[in-house]
Design goal:
Largest sheet: 8 strands, antiparallel
Distance between the termini: 93 Å
Oligomer: single chain
Helix content: 25-40%
Number of helices: 4
Number of strands: 10
Radius of gyration: 35 Å
Order of helices and strands: EEEEEEEEEEHHHH
Structural class: alpha+beta
Low-confidence stretches: 1-12, 191-201
Mean pLDDT: 74
Strand order of the largest sheet: 3-7-6-5-4-10-9-8
Strand content: 15-25%
Length: about 280
Amino acid sequence: SALRLGDRSVIMAALVLDDLVLSASRRPELLDSEIELCWVQSADLEFDKHKGETWRNGTLAVTSHRLLWLKPEHDSDHQTTSSAPARDCSLPLSSVKGHRGVNSFFKKTPRVILSVWRSAEGRPACAEEAQAEELDEVSVALRGPSGSYDTMEKNLTLALSRQEWKRAPVRKTGLTVGETYALATERQRGATSSAKVGASAAGIGGLVRKQREDNLRADKSIDGAFKDLAALMDKAREMVDLSAKLKEALRENAESADDTNDEDKGIEKFLLTLGITSVV
């Protein structure tokens, strides 16, 4: 690619992105403290708008530290207009100077254009390692669902603003996305073990297990509610028995003396205020 500075042109080799290591199930291996933010489908990487070098129809992830791009799993879905074959790759966010979005009614395909620091060898580099004139552009063309652009742009802006890669040393853990998330959750709960978390913490199995735990909590809540209702019914029986005794006492007073009529009516009114109108 070429970058024009004033009246002179500097010819640069194509930007070379870092290789992305995948597990046997094609899950990316994350860096220590790296967190997945979002995934978008049908994302193209456009390295050089002048030469039209493009890797098509991949899957893109935005993490707290990097952009991850996975080529299509099936060769029939994979197309490229580049001389170099497409491969699973990553771009460290520490090398991104800035980005801008292109998304309007007149543009068929929305894009996020990244301004990337690069070394003399063509590798992504942080600003301290790259010279001022060594900048390149990588465009991400989003051909997937209509919400793909907003999802990527929002999470990319968040990751660049937080700069999590500066908060802790970055080293590879060998864990996949789901395993790293599970390990981070255990650390937040105060776990001291640094052992790897099994892949069962993620995927369909993890969702099924979470649903089962939610159902158990709901069953416990329902059982507690029925126990409270049973206790209330026991109290209600005691109140009914008490009202029956009071009614019986009123009848006995009415039969023994006439001057207790006003007192009896007062007791009946008191029972009404308690909601007791009958002995049954």
